[in-house]
């Protein structure tokens, strides 16, 4: 039996955050909290909304991204949320092209050749998956490529388990300072006030969708 897809209340709250004015958005929570599902869905929505745009989903290691997001989350999002949208994964360059010409690229930051390729592209969205494993320098490198001109506002999405106080995620999103210089960061760009984070209560298995 097929059920109409619906978000949980916490995921709807997250969507409001993602659709707000903030450029840099962190969703944090434990395993199976649903944060990756929400962010992958948001990336697909943006890709479908603006033809010819480019969006990147990144993790420290490509193999880990392939084993999680590519093998499970992305196909699940497409099946449940966009069942009529055709898509196919190119295993040559690890991209998915949407019917409107928009492209979602899946990349690892652990290889110089892959990183060099990323540096030659511009994105409307960059999404750092499991960002607790990504260095601040690698994150800032990606931000230099968050520069594609399109009808979309530029967005950086981040998901992570709750970070330690020494991690750059904590310094940026909790302390509101640059981890290197300790200079204050613009709060309005980091999150949508008043709540910069999302800690969901509902697991992804509670999402209703087509089997």
Describe this structure in words.
The protein has helices at residues 9-18, 35-49, 62-81, 112-119, 136-143, 168-175, 187-190; strands at residues 24-28, 54-59, 89-90, 95-97, 103-108, 125-128, 155-160. Helix content is 35%, strand content 15%. Mean pLDDT is 84; it is low at 191-211. The longest helix is centred in the middle third of the chain and has 20 residues, at 62-81. By secondary structure, the chain is α/β, with parallel strands linked by helices. It has a single domain, classed as 3-Layer(aba) Sandwich (Rossmann fold).
Gyration radius (Cα, Å) is 16 Å
How big a fraction of the residues is strand?
15-25%
- Strands side by side in the biggest sheet: 1-7-6-2-5-4-3
According to CATH, the fold-level topology is Rossmann fold
The profile of the biggest β sheet is: 7 strands, mixed
Q: What order do the helices and strands follow?
A: HEHEHEEEHEHEHH
List keywords for this structure.
seven-stranded mixed sheet, Terminase_L_N, P-loop_NTPase, Rossmann fold, 211 residues, alpha/beta, 35% helix, disordered C terminus, Terminase-like family protein, globular
Give a short overview.
With 211 residues, this protein is an alpha/beta fold.
How does the SSE layout of this entry go?
Elements: H1 9-18, E1 24-28, H2 35-49, E2 54-59, H3 62-81, E3 89-90, E4 95-97, E5 103-108, H4 112-119, E6 125-128, H5 136-143, E7 155-160, H6 168-175, H7 187-190
Helix pairs in contact: 1-2, 2-3
